[in-house]
Amino acid sequence: VAAALFFSAETARQFLRHLPRDVRDKLREARAIAISDRAAEVLASAPWREIVRAATPDQAAMLALLGVAAR
To answer: Of 20, 15, 19, 21, whose CA–CA distance to 34 is shortest?
Structure first.
């Protein structure tokens, strides 16, 4: 997995809560794309390669960070 998108702080929190410990280190190879500062703050507790926040809190801005145009 090269990147993961998080559309809320709660989604980020639950993802990290349920992530198996043996998988956690693999996050060093992935980007986290957060919809908000709050979601990015939650994600900062994990060892991501990079955490980026969408310019605006919407799907189009998140997909833009992946290099994908929203339809």
So the answer is: 15
In 3D, which of 10, 55, 64 has the Cα closest to residue 35? 55
pLDDT over threshold 90, residue 3: yes
Query: CA-CA distances (angstroms) from residue 23 to 17, 19, 28, 33, 37?
Result: 12, 7, 10, 18, 24
**Widest CA span of the chain, in angstroms?**
36
Measured from the Cβ of residue 37, the count of other Cβ atoms closer than 10 Å reads 10
pLDDT digit string, tens, across residues 22-56? 999 999 999 999 999 999 999 999 999 999 999 99
pTM listed for this prediction: 0.91
